[in-house]
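Section: Multi-chain targets

For targets with more than one molecule, the full set of components is provided together so that the structure can be written out for the assembly as a whole rather than chain by chain. Components appear in the order listed by the source. The example entry contains two components.
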Amino acid sequence: MTDTNTLLEARGIGKSFLGITALDGVDFTLEAGEIHALLGENGAGKSTLIKILTGVYTRDRGTMRMHGQEVTPANVGEAQALGIGTVYQEVNLLENLTVAENLFLGRQPRRFGLIDRREMRRRSKALLERYGLDIDVDALLSSYSVAVRQIVAIARAVDLSGKVLVLDEPTASLDAHEVEMLFSVLRKLREDGLGIIIITHFLNQVYAVADRVTVLRNGRLVGTKKLSDLPRLELISMMLGRELQHITRDHQAEDATVAATAEAPIQFLGYGKRGSVAPFDLQVRPGEVVGVAGLLGSGRSETAFLLFGIDRADSGTAMVDGKEVTLSSPEAAIANGFGFCPEERKTDGIIGDFSVADNIALALQARQGWAKPITSAEKTALADNFIKSLDIRPADPERPIKFLSGGNQQKAILARWLATDPRLLILDEPTRGIDIGAHAEILKMIEKLCAEGMSLVVISSELEELTAVAHRVIVLSDRKHVAELAGSEMTADNIMQAIASSARTEAA
Amino acid sequence: MIHARNLPFVTTLGIFVIAYALCVAQFPNMLSTRVIGNLLTDNAFLGIAAVGMTFVILSGGIDLSIGSVIAFTSVFVAVMVGSLGVHPLVAFAAVLVISTIFGSLMGAMIRYLDIPPFVVTLAGMFLARGAAYLISTESVPISHEIIDTIQGFYFRFPGGGRLTALAMLMLAVFIAASFIAGRTRFGANVYAIGGNQQSAELMGVPVGSTTIGIYALSGFLSGLAGIAYTLYTSSGYSLATVGVELDAIAAVVIGGTLLTGGVGLVAGTFVGILIQGLIQTYIVFDGSLSSWWTKIVIGILLFVFIVLQRGIIWYSNRKLAESRLKEV
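Its structure, encoded as tokens over all components, is:
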């Protein structure tokens, strides 16, 4: 596709970090006058691709052309000079400066070598008027809402670059009205002939504003499609990486056992938090694995945060053994026998400079209280025990955990919670970013733990994995629990149907 | 309307005016131009150093080497002029070059080796102090006709006060620095880096050269402060000006500059210096108070200002949250 309308063309882009492939032979084409959505789950390679296009990273392989000319932007400034401007999700502008100072930072109009504030003010006003924004440009940026800041950021990026505009999750913290305001700005820019790349995980917004969509998964291109002839269900299956087909596992036998089980000892009734997850009911029985499915941003991790007391619920009650409990902090959750392996293992899970043994002993120590320190002999015994039973490699309890592979780090974090002998263990994406061998081991371990009577809540974007290990799956969409599937109903097809149909009713 | 960002400065100014009025009410003589002239002269070297510190703190950094660089400068100039017979202006120029290079090297280490400013300038502090001892451990007197001329030069205020060359130098530095901070791209970049270095970098601010420039400026102004100190005391002494960097930090913070960077005014630092000078003057007038009361009052003021700044941040966050809620 090299018609005259093609603005930016990337072919066979590849990038690895420390031997781990982040992008593998990805093609991407952006035309002038189109809004192009870029979709994919966490770790799909969206941000890596964007960072290559905008000059933050340099590609290892592949070609990149602007107007047919091969280009290799080495930094953000060079990309800007080529006409590629970016608005990042969180770190975009400077809140301690005024609107005008933000718009003209680094290119302030000058008179006699000094910044001409009057001219800067006049030009800022004129610039923002084109976006229908009539605000005091001498007020601090921090005094405006996120939506206004977002538009100021777009105005700066377009004014600087003017050909390609990249928006990284621009709607993440906007309400419906603000999103509409932003989209009308984008549509106007499209009419002006800009090529716009938008990263988002809200499917409704993709259909509302974008012309084409490119889906990435695990660093590879799944496909580029025109949205006008792409059914929602197909888009979801592109993102979750599964063709529509029937799953082989037979859940018939389980239907009876699950239904027959009596009152669950751990119950959440009408549990929710405004702006995070709508109120939901959840019962977990001993020896049961409850799966949580949904797209990125649907409220998966937020549900886990509520269950573990990281976020405080503002509605509903939590019951353990028929008694109402308050999960006001992770400490309270641990006291009730809960454990949680977070999604962001590197930042939220491990303490990189601590040894494997120290990392394993952490939760147990927290549960015992600081008055009763675990002796170093006990700690080593504990670590040795888990290193053996979970096959953590290398089998050296004193090695700083940051030197272990992802799979072994994940096992060590599992060991941390197993040491506290929890009754409910919440696993958020337990198999992300770990190699296939460790992947299978962790799934096997989940089955073993549940056979021993532990309750588990497993959050995953791998539907096959979920349907394989879970007894029930709760489906989330747009921060609501929209369906609960069990037994023979629990198939990847049905999960995707549930997401798609709820998205459709949302849009209607 | 007063912007929230200028509120600390306005508060400082208010505190100074009220404090001065109270002092005058007790000792009417404190209103004389003589007192004002002396206050400016006595604090000239501290004021010049505090200007450099203002830029450093605005960028979110800290410079602990200032006091040591002042001591080094004064000893270096005194030995060059007093013992070796070098012309003072040559010695001044040489020492300014040395201190500027010293500052820019610290800036380069902070930026390119990614070492916290606290650590780098702490090392710089020991280095400069050690170098000062190496030159001479004794107080070296200095006399030269040019130095006498500079020391003897002043404008007479009505009322008998003197605006000395040192006071004029400090005022000139403050005026020039105000323009650099408020009206140049370098100044805008300093505020940007102090606001959020990562965002500033993504917006195309040359973080490397700006960081080096900031510490070079601080080094240069420390050297200039050292020259002012040499002229003020007519000598160089390696044990002098211990802890002056802390007085400078106090002046900057009392002047309303946010210690985390990104918010503040050079003019605020000037008021911060005036407040410190006022307290000392009051103690002299009172005659019975220990001079350590200066430190106690500065300590109290620092606490007040840090709490005030926290309060402003808290208040503006809450107002923002409220306005967001209204929109929804």
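The longest strand of chain B covers residues 154-156.
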